[in-house]
C-alpha cells in the first residue's frame, strides 16, 4: 500500500509531495501547491525520557509490557524515536532497569522501533546539592568503567549515551573509553572546574545535558561551569523548553551562543501527560501538577519536581514566545539530536524509514500534529 503526504517542507517551506511504500520513503517531489499551513518534517527524537503518561522507566514494573504505552503515547505527540533515561540508582537497580527496557523491546515491536537508545544519566555525577538535582545522593559515585561496561553488555548495545560530571579523577580516561565504545558523553549535573570541563571535551565529551539546570542556584560570576560549557566550541547542548526550567531570556542567550548546536529534550517524568492534580511521585514524594503543566513539590510552587511536558509542548513554548522559528524549532527536536548519533543524517532521503509528521501551525503559533507515520504506518491520534 502506498501513502502520500503533501505539505510544506519544515526546512524551507517549499511544497513537497512524499510517497511512502513498504515503510520507506519512495520518492520526494516538488508539489505545485500545498494546503496553506500544513508542514512536513521528520518525527521528533527525544533523547531524555524518564517516563510518560503515568509510566516510569525508573521503576521496576509488575508488568514491564505496560511500558510499551510510553512509545504509543509519545508517537501521538510526534515523537517517533526516544531514549528511555535511567537516572542515578544502586548498581543492581540500574542493571535491572536496563534489562527491563531490553526485554520490553524484545516483546513489543512498536517499542522496539521507537526506542533507539538508552540514556544513562548518573550515577557518575556531582554529589553536591544543586548540581546533583533530584538524583539520590547515596548512589552517586566516581566514574567506574568496569561497572559501566557491565551495563553496556546488559543493554545489548542499546546504551548510546551517558550524562556524567567530569569533576573526579579518572573522568577523562572514562570518557575516552566511552567514545571508543561509540557512546556519546554529555556533561551534566556537574560541579567541574573550567580545566576539568576542557579536559572532558578534549577526551571526547560532545554535549551538555539540560544546560542551565542541575546547577547551584547561586554560582561565582567567573569562572564557573556554565561559562565553561557555553564557551566550549565542540559542545552541543540540550535544554528543557517547558517554560518553567529556563526563563525565555536564558534560552535566547543559549540560542545565540550554541546556534545550530542547541537542541531540546523533554526530560519528562512519569507524570507528564497526566491530568492536573496532586500525586505521590517516586522521586520528590507528594507533588502537584498544575493545569499549565508545571510539576512542583506539594505546597511549594517554587521547587520543581521534574518536567511534565512532552517535546511537542516544548516546541510550542518556543514558537509561542517567538524564541525560535518553525524550521529551527523542528530541527532542534529532530535532525539535531539525530545527528549526534548519525552525523550524515539528512531528512527526506529515498529509502529512509518513513518516520514523518504532518503538522499545522495554529494562529497562536503552536504546532498541532495532524498525522504521524512510524515506518510508514499511520498512528491513530485519538
Ligand atoms: Zn538531569
Automatic annotation (TrEMBL):
Coiled coil: none annotated. InterPro entries: GlcNAc_6-P_deAcase (IPR003764), Metal_Hydrolase (IPR032466). SUPFAM superfamilies: Metallo-dependent hydrolases (SSF51556). It comes from the Bacteria. Zn(2+) binds at residues 121, 189, 210. Binds 1 divalent metal cation per subunit. This is N-acetylglucosamine-6-phosphate deacetylase. It comes from Algoriphagus aquaeductus.
Amino acid at each position: 500500500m502506498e501513502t502520500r503526504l503533501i505539505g510544506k517542507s519544515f526546512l524551507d517551506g517549499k511544497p513537497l509531495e512524499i510517497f511512502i511504500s513498504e515503510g520507506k520513503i519512495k520518492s520526494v517531489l516538488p508539489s505545485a501547491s500545498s494546503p496553506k499551513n500544513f508542514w512536513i518534517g521528520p518525527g521528533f527524537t527525544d533523547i531524555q525520557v524518564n517516563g510518560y503518561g503515568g509510566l516510569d522507566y525508573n521503576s521496576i514494573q509488575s508488568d514491564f509490557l505496560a511500558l510499551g504505552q510510553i512509545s504509543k503515547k509519545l508517537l501521538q505527540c510526534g515523537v517517533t524515536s526516544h531514549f528511555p533515561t535511567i537516572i542515578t540508582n544502586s548498581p543492581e537497580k540500574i542493571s535491572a532497569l536496563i534489562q527491563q527496557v531490553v526485554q520490553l523491546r524484545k516483546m513489543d515491536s512498536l517499542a522496539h522501533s521507537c526506542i533507539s537508545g538508552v540514556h544513562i544519566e548518573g550515577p557518575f555525577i556531582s554529589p553536591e546539592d544543586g548540581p546533583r538535582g533530584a538524583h539520590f545522593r547515596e548512589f552517586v559515585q566516581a566514574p567506574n568503567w568496569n561497572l559501566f561496561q557491565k551495563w553496556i553488555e546488559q543493554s545489548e548495545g542499546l546504551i548510546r549515551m551517558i550524562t556524567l560530571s567530569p569533576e573526579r579523577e579518572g573522568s577523562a580516561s572514562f570518557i575516552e573509553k566511552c567514545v571508543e565504545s561509540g557512546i556519546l558523553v554529555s556533561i551534566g549535573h556537574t560541579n567541574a572546574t573550567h580545566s576539568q570541563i576542557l579536559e572532558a571535551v578534549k577526551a571526547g565529551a560532545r554535549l551538555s545535558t539540560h544546560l542551565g539546570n542541575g546547577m547551584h542556584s547561586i554560582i561565582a560570576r567567573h569562572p564557573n561551569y556554565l561559562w565553561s560549557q557555553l564557551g566550549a566550541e565542540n559542545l552541543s547542548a540540550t535544554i528543557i523548553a517547558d517554560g518553567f526550567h529556563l526563563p525565555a531570556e536564558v534560552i535566547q542567550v543559549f540560542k545565540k551562543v550554541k546556534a545550530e548546536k542547541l537542541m531540546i529534550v523533554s526530560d519528562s517524568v512519569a507524570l507528564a501527560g497526566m491530568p492536573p492534580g496532586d500525586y505521590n511521585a517516586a522521586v520528590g514524594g507528594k507533588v502537584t501538577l498544575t493545569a499549565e503543566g508545571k510539576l512542583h513539590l506539594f505546597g511549594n510552587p517554587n521547587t520543581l519536581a521534574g518536567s511534565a511536558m512532552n517535546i511537542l509542548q516544548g516546541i510550542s513554548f518556543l514558537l509561542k514566545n517567538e524564541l525560535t522559528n518553525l524550521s529551527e524549532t523542528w530541527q532542534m527536536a529532530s535532525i539535531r539530536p539525530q545527528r549526534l548519533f548519525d552525523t550524515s543524517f539528512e531528512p527526506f532521503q529515498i529509502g529512509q524509514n518513513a518516520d514523518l509528521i504532518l503538522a499545522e501551525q495554529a494562529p497562536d503559533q503552536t504546532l498541532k500534529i495532524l498525522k504521524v507515520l512510524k515506518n510508514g504506518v499511520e498512528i491513530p491520534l485519538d
